[in-house]
Write a structure and sequence with these properties.
The structure is a single chain. By secondary structure, the protein is of the alpha/beta class. Strands 6-7-8-3-9-10-12-11 form an 8-stranded mixed sheet, sandwiched between helices. A 4-stranded antiparallel sheet has the order 2-1-4-5, covered by helices on one side. The chain has 9 helices and 12 strands. The longest helix is centred in the middle third of the chain and has 16 residues.
Length: 307
Amino acid sequence: MPLLEVNKLSISFMQYVKGSLQEKVTIIDELDFAINEGEIVAVVGASGSGKSLLAHAIMGILPKNVVMSGNISYGGELLNEAKLKRYRGKEIALVPQSVSFLDPLMRVGEQLRTRADGAEQLKERRGLFDRFQLGEHVERLFPFQLSGGMARKVLVSTAAIGRTRLIIADEPTPGMHPGDVAEALGHFKQLAEGGCAVLFITHDIEAALRIADKVAVFYAGTAVEVAPASDFHGNGEQLRHPYSRALWRALPQNGFVPIAGTQPARNSDISGCLFAERCSMATDICEDSRPAARDIRSGMVRCVHAT
């Protein structure tokens, strides 16, 4: 049984477009997703594809003007507000994308401690500080006194402790020195080896492939493919979805081939495949309806042409 399971998750925002006229804009559309204990699943995709919104939905920190449907389960139980209060910050931890999540009026050391912490957790966090080459004086600093890389290390340290069962890392490494990136990735790997599930959200496919067991490729608010990390090699011939292959080939070391077109706007009324307008394989059937998720070659794909 997966530790975290997302079923038919849709997230929309109600926004005013003219006077009192409102419009519903769907950002995530019928997303299916799962992660097991001891597993690292990387989520990759272009900006605006819904990666960070997924993290916020799991943590229960979406804004009030959101309309959400579908289910999120944790440990086989529906993750409602009561259970979120029990698990958030304890068993479920977020490494946020923005360093603005740090309280600007509180010293770093105070933000590393929670009511549930004991001497063991405090020792573990200080050990992480040592490994990230953050001296004890950093605990006495305010967030504005930290460099971008230092702030990222602090955010990783707030989540990477032994009692955590699920870590959601939302772009945790930008601004870090390459050596520190390797150190952070190593910590996530160690936590997974100890049984923790890690959801690693990133633009850096190369970094993701260094530690991920699986890679979920997001496009326009849904996962178009979930593949073993080992399938990302060569020309991407083992990948199932044309967008996954195009994304892989767009990397400098893989030919630097650009993807024609742009991701559809969030308020686009598209009944068929969201990638059809940019896909060289598209046929009339791609315009008819949204492709259903299918299990193919130990992976999942939403494409009628995948084999």
